[in-house]
Amino acid sequence: MVQEYKLFIGGEFKNSSTGEVFEDINPATLESLATIQIAGTEDVDKAVDAAEAGFRVWSRVPAPRRAELLFRAARILQERKEELAVLMTEEMGKILPETRGDVQEAIDITNYAAGEGRRMFGETTPSELNEKFCMTVLRPLGVVGLITPWNFPIAIPAWKIMPALVAGNSIVFKPASDTPLLALKLIEVLIEAGLPPGVINLVTGPGGTVGKAVVQHPRIRAISFTGSLDTGKWIMKECSKTMKRVSLELGGKNPVIVMDDADFELALEGVLWGAFGTTGQRCTATSRLILHEKIKDEFTKRLLAKVKALRIGNGILPETDVGPLISKAQLEKTERYVSIGKEEGATLLTGGKRTDPGLPGYFFEPTVFTDVMPEMRIAQEEIFGPVLGIFTVSSLEEAIEVANNSKYGLSSAIYTGNVGNAFKAIEKIEAGITYINAPTIGAEVHLPFGGVKGTGNGFREAGTDAIREFSEVKAVYIDYSGRLQKAQIDSAE
Ligand code: NAP
Question: Global pTM?
Answer without folding.
Answer: 0.97
